[in-house]
Design a protein that fits this description.
Blueprint lengths: L4 H12 L43 H7 L7 E5 L14 H17 L2 E5 L9 H6 L7 E5 L3 H6 L7 H7 L11 H6 L1 E2 L2 E2 L13 E5 H6 L5 H6 L5 H11 L1 E2 L5 E8 L2 H11 L6 E2 L5 E2 L5 H16 L3 E2 L9 H7 L3 E6 L1 H9 L6 E4 L18 E4 L8 H11 L8 H9 L6 H13 L20 H9 L5 H19 L9
Parallel strand pairs: 1-2, 1-3, 8-11, 8-12
Antiparallel strand pairs: 3-14, 4-5, 6-12, 6-13, 7-8, 9-10
Helix pairs in contact: 6-15, 11-12, 13-14, 16-17, 18-19
InterPro entries: Bact_solute-bd_prot1, SBP
Keywords: Cell membrane, Lipoprotein, Membrane, Palmitate, Signal
Protein name: Extracellular solute-binding protein
Amino acid sequence: MKILNKNTKKMWATSLSVMFLLTGCGTTQNVETATPAPTDDKVVTQEAEKSEEPTEPLSKTDQAKADLDFGGETIVFCYPPGYGMIDTDGTSVSLARRDAKMKELEEKYNVKILQRDDASTYWENMVTSIASGSPEGHIMVAQERQLLSWVEAGAVADLTAAMEKTGVDFTDTEKYSQIVRKYSSYNNGQYGFSDPAPYVSQAYWFYNKRIFEEMQLGDPYEMVENKEWTWDKVTEIAQKATKRKSDGTIEQYGLGTMMLTDLLGSLCQSNGTNMATFNDEGKAVLTLAEAKGMKAFEQMSDWLFKDKVALFNDGSLDWDATINDFINGNVAIMCGTNPVLNTAKGTPMADDFGIVPPPMGPDVTNYTMGGSMGQFYFIPKTYEDMADKLLLLIDDLYELPEGMTRADTVAESYATHVRDEQSLKYYTDMALNFDTSVYEIAIIAGLDWSSPSIMEVCNKVIKGEGTPADVMEQNKVQMQTLLDDKFNALKFTGK
């Protein structure tokens, strides 16, 4: 079933309309009371007293905003080039609304706001430009893998004092991403922030409706609702959906994944764990080597190496190679991130597809998925002394539009990407809930680029150089040492 455009348009129209509330004015009442006779010649007149409701005192944050004045200063938001954070072609409703909000804030706080994404050397000279006292902007963007090294280099402002001074509260789930808040806190300092993203940052699962219907593989939506969408069910479907020619060459895969780390990470999270995480004492731990993680590794090995029903990218192919195989109708089930969804819309994909959560692992009783920061905002160390003013500006900017919910912001951005209402529901649920779920620290710790790395141990298994148990036994000490070294100077203190 194609997506219901009428419903989508109605939802957008409702969410974007301006709502005016008419409030009644208080009336004045004349009250007569018994008054003692005057003791002198003056005439005592009686006047009605106007009843006024007591005024609530302003909160610390609202008072700070009432006093805020930038004195005409220019504040620069600088984004990485190519990230699509500026509404250059006028096609983004959400970006256009944010731009309009910025115009309001310019007048409200006597400030000029400039947005830039034209720095071709954005990533290369980030730390040096901040160290020299001339960063590209007052509010900037970084990827999670850069957080630790930039904080250690003294490039990122600690926002703790500014938050205390202004009362700006990053635990407000309507305004701020809780994953970014929690996992950008080290040594009791707060270094990053972001509004909740209207998209899913971790891997989720797609299925090709044509293949499922032609091969009578069942309805994944029903499987999810009945809690039958499990690793075992995916194994059964992938084996049936894999087509081989007489020479053994596979012409249709039952299962596919973008990168091996995407599939392994998704399986770990769908079994209630991660490849690496922080324990209760804030210590980074290689959980892939523990029981739940090893079950995920073994399941991936079975699909890729033993059963040979899964298409994968070992790092030697173009990053979108397996995505294109799914888009072209050669893969029944696909584990991937948002680029799959964006490519399916942009190409567009001829076959209908559905979206479901990662299949349930054997050690959990419900569908689970992790989260990641992806990208986050920070204030360069250069501007730490004015972080209070910048946070007040951000706090206003992150207010939800009147009449809109977070679910509305997801639908506004992605309702045109999916093909049916059930997919939109699952996508929205994942987008809203991953923000408070377990966090995968393998990326922020650099385990995907280290040596040994997650990709290296995956490749050893699929090349037949050892079982998951063998490979992890050979590499787990080194990988744990890498985690220890990475967090030697910065202890995780997020809550």
